[in-house]
Write a structure and sequence with these properties.
288 residues; alpha/beta; 9 helices; 12 strands; binds NADPH dihydro-nicotinamide-adenine-dinucleotide phosphate
C-alpha cells in the first residue's frame, strides 16, 4: 500500500466524431501491458470547444493528446512550437505538454507519416526509392513528407482533384530533398515502371464502401513493388488483395496505426510499448 498512488498520468484524443476511433483501446492495452500508470481518454470535442479542451488538458496536468478530424490544423494556434515534419505538413496529430519552469510548453508533432515509414521499413527502406501516392489529403501529405525526409528520390502524387495533387507535389519539391511531381489520375492508372512503393492514401475502400477499389491497372504494377493501404477498416482491402495476387509485398493500414501509436506513447512516456499487444487488440476489434 505504501507505494500505491491514485492519480494516473493522463493522455487522450480530441476529435468529432470520436466514437469510431479505436486508438483508445490499443493505448490502454499497451499501458496496462507495460504496467504504466497512464490512461488515454477518447474525448468528443466539437470545433468550438477545442480551445477549452486544450486549456483543460493543461490545467489537469495531461502529458499530451492526439488531435484527429477536424482539429489537426486548428490546434496549431494553441501551441508553442512545431516539430519539423508537422511544420512542413502544416498539421498536427500529436501534442506533447512539457512543464519546464516558467509554465507549460506545447509542441505539435505529426506522427501519421512517421508511423507509416516505421511500418514500411521492415519490408522496404524508402531511401533511394521512387514512391507513388494515391491521394492528396491529410494522410497522403503526411506520408509524402515523411517518406521524402526518409530519403526517397521522388514522390509522385496521383489525385482526383488536380489542384490538391499539384499542391502536395509542389510542397515536396520545395521543402524536402525529394523530387515532387503530380500525375493526373487517368482511368486504369498506369503505375510508372520503377515504382518501389505504391500507397493508397485515399479513403477508397473504407467501410461501408469496401467493394470500391482505386482505379489502377494492376497489370502495370511491377511484382517487386511494395504496395500499402492506409485504410484500416477492413484491413485487407480489395486494393491489397489485387496487389498480393500480382505477387507484390503488401502492408495494411493497421501497421501505420500501431506504429503511430507507439511513437506517440514514446513521446508521452519515454517508453517503448508493445506493438504486438496493440496489433492483437486491433485484430480482436476487427475480428481477424
Ligand atoms: P482526406 O479527406 O484529407 O483526403 C481524402 C483523399 O482521398 C483525397 O485525396 C481525395 O481526393 C481522395 N478520395 C476520396 N474519395 C475518392 C474517390 N472516390 N476517388 C478518388 N479519390 C478519392 O482524408 P485523410 O487523408 O485524412 O484520410 C484518408 C484515409 O486515410 C482514410 O481512410 C483514413 O481513415 C486513413 N488514415 C489512416 C491512418 C492509419 O494510421 N492507418 C491514419 C490517418 C488516416 P480529392 O482531393 O480529389 O477529394
Amino acid at each position: 500500500m505504501a507505494d500505491r498512488t491514485f492519480c494516473a498520468e493522463l493522455t487522450g484524443s480530441f476529435s468529432t466524431s470520436a466514437a469510431q476511433n479505436p486508438t483508445v483501446a490499443i493505448m490502454e492495452a499497451a499501458f496496462a501491458d507495460a504496467a504504466l500508470d497512464f490512461r488515454y481518454i477518447n474525448c468528443e470535442v466539437p470545433p468550438e470547444s477545442l480551445a477549452d479542451a486544450v486549456r483543460g488538458a493543461i490545467a489537469m496536468g495531461w502529458r499530451g493528446f492526439n488531435c484527429s478530424i477536424p482539429h489537426k490544423v486548428a490546434v496549431i494556434e494553441h501551441l508553442d512550437a512545431l516539430a519539423q515534419s508537422a511544420e512542413i505538413i502544416g498539421a498536427v496529430n500529436t501534442v506533447v505538454i512539457d512543464r519546464p519552469e516558467g509554465g507549460p510548453r506545447l509542441t505539435g508533432e505529426n506522427t501519421d507519416g512517421q508511423g507509416f515509414v516505421a511500418s514500411l521499413l521492415p519490408v522496404r527502406d524508402p531511401a533511394g526509392q521512387h514512391v507513388v501516392i494515391l491521394g492528396a489529403g491529410g494522410a497522403a501529405r503526411a506520408i509524402a513528407v515523411e517518406t521524402a525526409l526518409a530519403g526517397a528520390l521522388s514522390i509522385t502524387i496521383v489525385n482526383r482533384t488536380p489542384e490538391r495533387g499539384q499542391m502536395v507535389a509542389d510542397l515536396i519539391d520545395a521543402q524536402t530533398p525529394a523530387a515532387g511531381r503530380y500525375l493526373p489520375w487517368t482511368p486504369q492508372l498506369h503505375v510508372p515502371h520503377g515504382t518501389g512503393v505504391l500507397i493508397n492514401a485515399t479513403s477508397i475502400g473504407f467501410h461501408p464502401n469496401e467493394a470500391e477499389t482505386p482505379d489502377v491497372d494492376f497489370e502495370s504494377i511491377d511484382p517487386g513493388t511494395v504496395v500499402a493501404d492506409v485504410v484500416v477498416n477492413p484491413p485487407e482491402t480489395n486494393f491489397l488483395k489485387a496487389a498480393a495476387a500480382r505477387g507484390c509485398t503488401t502492408l495494411d493500414g493497421l501497421g501505420m496505426l500501431v506504429n503511430q501509436a507507439l511513437i506517440n506513447a514514446r513521446l508521452w512516456t519515454g517508453r517503448d510499448l508493445s506493438s504486438a499487444v496493440m496489433r492483437r487488440e486491433l485484430e480482436e476489434i476487427f475480428g481477424l
